[in-house]
Design brief:
The structure is a homodimer of 178-residue chains. Chain A is α/β, with parallel strands linked by helices and 178 residues long. Chain A has one domain: Dihydrofolate Reductase, subunit A. Helices cover 21% and strands 35% of the residues of chain A. In chain A, the strands form 2 sheets. A 9-stranded mixed beta sheet of chain A has the order 5-6-4-3-7-1-8-12-11, with helices on both faces. In chain A, strands 2-10 form a two-stranded antiparallel sheet. In chain A, strand 3, helix 2 and strand 4 form a beta-alpha-beta unit. The longest helix of chain A has 12 residues. The first copy, chain A, starts with a strand and ends with a strand.
Chain lengths: 178, 178
């Protein structure tokens, strides 16, 4: 069975995006370690992304830029028919994150499920559904924005299982201690 | 002239202490790299600490546990006579953080000045008074607490100049890009 892994690029102060949702700042700081990224991507079997992605699929803006031809599960507040686009199936799940994790794990088989976005990540942490966290920490303070962990509200112990600092970005992998 | 360096141990979600100010959790995760700590301490010539330390000096609870026999500048809201205790001089500075940095730099000479605490660190970042940041990132999410960078409100670009991951803690040194 694959693992459920939070995947995020964040600033040193923990933001995934600025207050308007932009990640333009991300591109000022070079790339993560190529081997870390490639390995992570190759081991993915499904993705769970944010509710705000319903529209973006139709506009062509999709998780991992459409690079990964694997099932995508997108959290919504309203039911929506699945979308097939460029070899990817987007399944919309209404509110029930545990259901999304169950379906994504089944679809992923032996491969891993990536969790994208702060709300989804925090909900899954609280429900005990997360196995690992893969972070790419960009060398900047954004000062304000959309936080990955902000509002979590409970203590979760971790064990660092990988730390790669070959580029200016910290590629860090943690295991949730249960 | 020495550098002005924010020095903090934080959780992966950026907290220095829990909501009650306790750092008991910090001791569950082992130590930072000994060489990093020793080098940092040897290069320090003065320390600027928080306003809430007036009382703690008198109670014997002091920055770096009294291990460092160097001048300590403590921010207060009310004037207070200097205190001499166990070979350390504690000078109290009323509200003016730039004055504290000026005095501490003068006292430190060629050595560095450590900034302790979130409010002091953020004020100095906003005033452009900080040269570097030395962090020790503990492998846990605290969920809530006293944040190092929370409320900063402005973007500050960094360059990572050291990353030591010999222990389970990430010992990271950043330079402020001005």
């Amino acid at each position: 069975m694959g693992k459920v892994i939070i995947h995020a690029t964040i600033t040193l102060d923990g933001f995934m995006a600025d207050t308007k949702g932009s990640i333009d700042w991300m591109f000022d700081f070079g790339d993560s370690d190529e081997k870390v990224i490639n390995t992570f991507m190759q081991e993915l079997g499904a993705v769970i992304g944010g509710a705000n992605k319903t529209q973006t699929v139709e506009e062509g803006e999709i998780p991992y830029g459409g690079m990964l031809k694997i099932p995508m599960y997108l959290m919504t507040h309203e039911a929506h028919e699945p979308i097939e686009k460029d070899g990817i199936t987007y399944t919309f799940i209404v509110n029930d994150i545990a259901q999304a994790v169950g379906e994504a794990k089944a679809a992923a088989g032996d491969k891993n499920v990536a969790l994208l976005g702060g709300s989804i990540s925090r909900q899954c942490l609280k429900l005990g559904l997360v196995d690992e966290i893969q972070l790419h920490v960009v060398p900047m303070l954004l000062g304000e924005g959309i936080s990955l962990f902000g509002g979590l509200g409970e203590r979760i112990d971790l064990e660092r299982i990988e730390a790669v600092t070959t580029t200016g970005i910290n590629d860090l992998r943690y295991r949730i201690v249960k």
